[in-house]
Structures are given as structure tokens and as C-alpha cells.
Amino acid sequence: MNTAINSLLLELPVPFKRIGGVLHVEAQAHNGISRWLDNFDRITLCAPLLPDDEHDLIDGSLSWLPVTDLLSDGRLNLQTLPWGYHPLDHFKQRRHVRQLFQRLIPQHRYLCFANLGWLGSWGNIAADLAQSAGRAYAIWLDWVLHEMPASKPGGTAKQAFGRIKLGMLKRNSLRAVRNASLGLFHGRSVHQAYAPHCVQAELVHNIHLKRTDIISPTQLQQRLTRADGLLRIGYAGRLHPMKGPLQWIAAVDGAIRAAVPGQIIEATWIGDGPLLEQARQRVIELGRQEQIHFPGAETERSRVLEFLRGLDIFLFCHLTPESPRCLIEALMSGTPLLGYASPYASDLVADCPSAAQFVDIGDSAALAHLLGRLLARPNQRRQMAMDARTCGQHFSDEAVFQHRSQLIKEYLP
């Protein structure tokens, strides 16, 4: 190993996708690779390659970019890993993956693994090999892996396999965390869950917006001058059970029912996901098609940012311990937060707590009540928006990736 070289072996769960024979990555992952390259001289990126017959498993709202533009200076090396999320594929490919990491680990000064768990989570193999070789490594997680939402009901065999899978996921991921020299945990909720198991646990954040994306004071003031009787509520993200979209609908519906004449609520959730059609059907059942909208995916990031900047309230109903970037993006857009309490959300607004209001997880009725109060208090909404922008100024992609890279260089000998 040439320790004089500032090199990083980085293993991620975000997949490669081959389009027209060219490797692509999701647009935000593309930006992330660029930011890693700002901080290391040479990087080898390992990620699974999405098979052609598995494309329907990936969120259709994702935007993909070719990686070729990042290869021009020769500092980035790409290594595709097999798609091993089926038991047969996983055990068939284990030997190949082991051999690959056995070759790559000695070639790099720093090691960081993120895809932990069981089937197809090759980061565990890399971590075990690094541990056996006496090499220090970092792990990077942005949600609590073993606290997944309950799977859909199935037969006895399916339920038994689900329990085995969850047990193995917890066992393997915690083993990697315990043996790591550094744990990079995105957000307070994830940090609190893993810190007791990690010798050096550090709280980090993950965001792909730049400082220039923070809403300007002029833009914010223009939004704050519109009609007091209109409350624009929104969310941006996947319609997945862990995001609580049906509870989100219930909260908005409750606020609409309590509104007085002249008060108008418009609620929009942009994104794709497995519960999209169910959410749309629920809106029809409630007769709220004029007030609650689920337009589907939006792949253009500039339009997502414009959407966030136009909201009065960013409403969320996250049900599991995770650290969604959308909350930071809302704050950077000067949009106050209203949602289910979590250490992560509270930590984001620790310096200006009036930028958010939280209720207990699952209490959509309390969210509806708070929405009604804010609808009737435009001056409070304006102050919350200004405080949200103040909180959002702490974040940018350059800052968070530099922080993460500095920790790797500090704690990995």
C-alpha cells in the first residue's frame, strides 16, 4: 500500500445503470462523486450494477447521468459489483466479490463502506476482509437498517424468511459498526441508534444543494407577501410506507375540515413510489381532488427546488428512524418544518427551534390542529420561514462532504 497517496476505496449501495453501453449513476450520486473527488486524489468507487430485468425496482423519478465526464483526469476508477439481492445470486457471487476486495483494499489509503446488511450488501464482506487484514475502515449510514417497516402479509414461509433476513441484517450491520474505526452517521436519529456500538461515532449530514441554492432574502420576501388566507403545504419524496403518505393525507384533510370560509389550503406531494395510486385513491374517497394533489415524479432538480421555495409549510410523516435530505432542502428553501418528532429533525433546527413544530409519531390529528393554527397566524408563518432560512444556511454539498472527508483522514490511521 502506498500510504503517501491520498486514495479512497468507497463502496456504496446506489447502483450503476448501463444505458446504451455507458455506465450511469443517479444524478445526486453523480454530484456526490464529484464532491468526494474534491477531497481525495484518487478514488475507487464500487457499486452494484442494476440488471436490465430489474429496472422496475428502481424509483422511476430518478434522473441518471453518465459517469464518463468524471473519468477524464484518471483519478476515478469504477468497479461494478454484482446484483446479489436474491439468495441464489448472493451466494453465487460471494467468492468473486471477496476476491475483488482482497485486491482493492491494499491499494488504498482510506476505506469507507456503506452498503451493509445481508443479501447483496457487499459492504459487509469488505468490512470483514479489512478487519482480518488489520486495516482501519469507516462506515457511512443514513438510516437505521434494522428498523424497516413491516413487510406486507404473506405465507408462513415468507414471513419466516422475512424474520431471518431482518435478523441477519441487524447482526451483520452491527458487526461492521463495532469493528469500524469510524462511524459516519447521517443525522441525530441514526447517530443515536448506532453510537453505542461504535468506537468513534460522528454525526454528519448529506445534502446535494449548493450555497447558491439557498433562497435569497428577496425571493423569500416575495413569497411572504402573498395572501394571508392561502396555506401551501408540500412534500417531496417517495410514496413509501415508511414516509407515512396516508397519514399525511389525513393531516391535510383534518386541517381542511377545520378551516373557516376564506381560508384556502393547497397540498401537493411530488414523487413516485409504491403507494402513489393508493394515495390518489384515498384523495378521491375524501373528495379532496381540488385541494390535495399527487402529480407523480419530478426528475428536474431545479423544478423541485422551485416547488420547495413556493411552500408555506413542509409537512412530513416519517415513521422510521432515518435522515431524509428533504428536510434540509426545505430549510435551505426558507420553508418551515411541520411533522413527526425525531432526534434528527429537532437537531436540524436546534439553533432556531421556531423554524419547526413537531408532534408525536402517528398523531396526524395533532398535525391537522397545528396546520389550522398556522393558517390563522400568518405573522407566525413569516417568522418561521425566516428562521428556517437561517437554519438552512449551515448546509451545502461542499461543506458536508468536506466534513466527512476530514473525519476519515483524522480517524483512519
From TrEMBL:
Parts forming coiled coils: none
Gene3D superfamilies in alphabetical order: Glycogen Phosphorylase B
Every Glycosyl transferase family domain range: 224-389
Domain of life according to the entry: Bacteria
Cross-referenced SUPFAM superfamilies: UDP-Glycosyltransferase/glycogen phosphorylase
InterPro entries for the chain: Glyco_trans_1
Pfam families: Glycos_transf_1 (PF00534)
PANTHER family, A to Z: GLYCOSYLTRANSFERASE, GLYCOSYLTRANSFERASE EPSF-RELATED
The name this protein goes by in its record: Glycosyltransferase
Taxonomic source organism: Roseateles albus
Organism placement in taxonomy: Bacteria, Pseudomonadati, Pseudomonadota, Betaproteobacteria, Burkholderiales
